[in-house]
């Protein structure tokens, strides 16, 4: 009960902050995540906008904030399972945002799941002393630019057939061995 | 005269490999089941193919029954070396068909990295990878960390257990028989599995706020990678994904448990606990951990990378523990790690090279060898100062008083030097391809000591020869050279023997 009341107070506080935040968001510089990771310290304390896909999990910490990862790479536009090209590892940053901003968001991206594509605006915290040296985007505004969606991936029938055949052959060999071992000769 | 192996030798080796492949085929049914439960039909088909190949080759091997079951030392070593090549090769099948790898070599790189509990990865778009494939990556850590050959020993009776056991770089027999020792190792692992997953799952749910299903998925993956000092993580940003000191602490406990020798686990479970701290190995690892920690913290402090003491100690402690235990989890991006110069770089590289304890899941030179080497060098210096003809006998404590013989000291120093040579090999190849000395050395030590921390060199676009070099380093480093040399010797005898 106490926890719920605390969250409500924080939510109201967040709404008060977020009103003017939307206006701030329009002013913020759009920075690619790769550049942000490359020159993290230079952006410390700056108000930035990042564009990308929310992936992984929404971590509701119970303190009025939710943590999520924002990926800004080619897979955020088209995942491999959706026919996207392979372009290397994922590029993403952690983001902390008021829980109220996550209302109505589609599930975060994962296997056969394209997460919502968003603009996240907030202050970049480089090695935040308050959080033991973590770096993350302290979000004040979120704009969904594309909803998440489910992706399809069917079985590869040729691989399935080859695997089944090999297993049948192996089982046949095993049965033959057992029969030979049991035979009196 | 070099004796050429005959057909009987081959039958013995092929038969033993058949047993091991059968065990791996059975173990591979776990990710297959995961794929069925998750209705992940594409990975399911590739798991089926992998299991089929393991089972088929297993049956072929078992078909070639030798006339006499006599797996001697060289056979056992060859079997272990071949197992650790064949399992990653066949185990990479699900990765190849996933579409998340640039080539079959990249897929095998990850399978080798998984099995040897290294943790360097070439997977692309990890954040959209099927959970069953992610599970298979981490299960490879578990199979490799605990020892797949040891698993075969538990399940199959048969001769040659001792040589197979030593072949997988276990140099300590805890219980009278190898089979009971192997059982103990797997019991320790399974008890930790249950306890670790419960603790990590609770933290993920209660502190991180993940739903129960995802909390336990993350818990299982991080347990496998932490306890087996592997270093893979289910998300692309490694442990940095969680943004939680509590979760890092829980993972750190798993890492420490994994870096401890199974002999130490045995002593903590059943033996006199106080004796543990008398062991040369325990004292050495505490000393090297403290020294590398101090170096790293001073280095980071001097460069002012972290503006606060809290940040400095949390990030410094976690990275150094990850390096020293050979885990390879990271809470900072590779580009940032690459910028850790000077003392911090030195501390991290030394920590990776030192590694964990012998007969543990960790890699590196290992604490006991370092302790023995230091003792032997100290003795040499003392000997010079003593009168001519004076004889000095040195003892050390390791589960009882033992004598430091010249043979033992030489053996410890030889293996230590082989590790140095292995690290230099990867560094040299890295330098040839134009990488800076610091980065090339860091990545090479990380591969050779089965750590998995990266400063960004390991990526899909890196040169093929460098990938092959790192794979060789992971393989040779994990097996601690003996089985590798035995295989090379066997091949040479096959060609040149009479």
Describe the structure.
The complex is a heterodimer of chains A (185) and B (498). Chain A has 185 residues and is of the alpha+beta class. Chain A has 2 domains: 2-150, OB fold (Dihydrolipoamide Acetyltransferase, E2P), CATH 2.40.50.140; 155-185. Chain A has helices spanning 2-27, 33-38, 74-77, 157-182; strands at residues 29-30, 47-60, 65-71, 92-98, 113-114, 117-128, 134-146, 149-150. A 5-stranded mixed β-barrel of chain A has the order 2-3-4-7-6. In chain A, strands 5-8 form a two-stranded antiparallel ribbon. In chain A, strand 2 (47-60) and strand 3 form a beta hairpin. The longest helix of chain A is centred in the N-terminal third of the chain and has 26 residues, at 2-27. The termini of chain A are far apart. The model of chain A is unreliable at 6-18 (pLDDT under 50). Chain B is mostly helical. Chain B is 68% helix and 1% strand. Chain B contains 23 helices and 2 strands. Chain B has a two-stranded antiparallel ribbon with strand order 1-2. In chain B, strand 1 and strand 2 form a beta hairpin. The radius of gyration of chain B is 22 Å and the shape is globular. The termini of chain B are close together. The mean pLDDT of chain B is 91. Chains A and B meet through strand 2, strand 3, strand 4 and helix 4 of A and helix 3 and helix 16 of B.
């Amino acid at each position: 009960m106490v926890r719920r009341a605390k969250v409500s107070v924080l939510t109201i506080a967040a709404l008060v902050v977020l009103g003017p935040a939307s206006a701030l968001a329009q002013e913020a510089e759009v920075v690619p995540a790769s550049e942000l990771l490359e020159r993290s310290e230079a952006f410390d304390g700056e108000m930035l906008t990042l564009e990308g896909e929310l992936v992984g999990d929404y971590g509701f910490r119970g303190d009025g904030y939710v943590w999520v990862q924002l990926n800004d790479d080619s897979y955020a536009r088209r995942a491999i399972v959706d026919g996207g090209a392979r372009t290397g590892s994922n590029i993403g940053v952690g983001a902390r945002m008021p829980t109220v901003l996550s209302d109505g968001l589609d599930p975060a991206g994962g296997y056969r799941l394209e997460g919502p594509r968003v603009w996240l605006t907030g202050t970049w915290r480089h090695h935040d002393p308050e959080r033991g040296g973590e770096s993350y985007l302290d979000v004040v505004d979120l704009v969904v630019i594309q909803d998440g969606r489910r992706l399809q991936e069917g079985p590869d029938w040729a691989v399935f057939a080859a695997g089944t055949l090999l297993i049948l052959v192996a089982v046949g060999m095993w049965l033959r061995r057992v029969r030979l071992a049991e035979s009196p000769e | 005269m070099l004796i050429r192996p005959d057909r009987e030798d081959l039958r013995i080796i092929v038969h033993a490999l058949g047993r091991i492949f059968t065990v791996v085929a059975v173990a591979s049914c776990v990710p297959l089941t995961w794929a069925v439960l998750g209705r992940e039909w594409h990975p399911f088909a590739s798991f089926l193919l992998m299991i089929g190949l393991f089972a088929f080759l297993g049956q072929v091997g078992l078909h070639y029954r030798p006339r006499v079951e006599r797996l001697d030392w060289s056979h056992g070593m060859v079997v272990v070396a071949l197992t650790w090549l064949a399992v990653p090769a066949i185990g990479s099948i699900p990765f190849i068909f996933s579409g998340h790898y640039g080539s079959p070599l990249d897929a095998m790189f990850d399978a080798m990295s998984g099995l040897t509990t290294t943790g360097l990865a070439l997977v692309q778009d990890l954040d959209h990878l099927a959970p069953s494939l992610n599970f298979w990556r981490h299960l490879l850590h578990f199979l490799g960390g605990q020892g797949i050959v040891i698993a075969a020993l538990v399940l199959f009776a048969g001769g040659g257990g001792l040589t197979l056991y030593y072949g997988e770089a276990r140099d300590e027999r805890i219980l009278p028989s190898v089979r009971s020792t192997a059982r103990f190792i797997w019991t320790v692992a399974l008890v930790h599995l249950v306890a670790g997953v419960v603790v990590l799952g609770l933290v993920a749910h209660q502190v991180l706020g993940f739903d129960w299903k995802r909390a336990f998925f993350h818990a299982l993956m991080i347990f496998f990678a932490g306890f087996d000092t592997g270093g893979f993580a289910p998300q692309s940003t490694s442990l940095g994904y969680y943004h939680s000191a509590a979760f890092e602490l829980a993972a750190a406990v798993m890492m420490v448990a994994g870096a401890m020798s199974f002999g130490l686990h045995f002593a903590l479970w059943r033996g006199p606990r106080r004796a543990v701290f008398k062991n040369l190995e325990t004292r050495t690892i505490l000393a090297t951990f403290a020294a590398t920690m101090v170096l790293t913290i001073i280095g980071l402090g001097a460069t002012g990378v972290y503006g606060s003491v809290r940040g400095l100690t949390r990030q410094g402690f976690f990275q150094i523990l990850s390096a020293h235990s050979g885990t390879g989890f990271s809470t900072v991006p590779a580009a940032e790690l690459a910028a850790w110069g000077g003392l911090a770089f030195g501390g991290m590289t030394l920590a990776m090279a030192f590694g964990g304890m012998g007969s543990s899941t960790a890699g590196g030179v290992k604490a006991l060898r370092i302790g023995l080497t230091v003792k032997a060098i100290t003795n040499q210096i003392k000997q010079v100062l003593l009168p001519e003809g004076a004889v000095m006998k040195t003892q050390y404590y390791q589960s009882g008083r033992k004598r430091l013989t010249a043979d033992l000291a030489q053996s410890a120093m030889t293996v230590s030097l082989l590790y140095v040579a292995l690290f230099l090999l990867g560094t040299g190849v890295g330098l040839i391809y134009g990488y800076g000395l610091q980065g090339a050395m860091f990545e090479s030590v990380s591969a050779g000591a089965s750590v998995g921390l990266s400063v960004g060199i390991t990526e899909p676009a890196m040169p093929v020869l460098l990938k092959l070099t790192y794979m060789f380093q992971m393989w040779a480093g994990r097996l601690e050279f003996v089985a590798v040399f035995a295989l090379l010797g066997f091949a040479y005898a096959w060609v040149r023997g009479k």
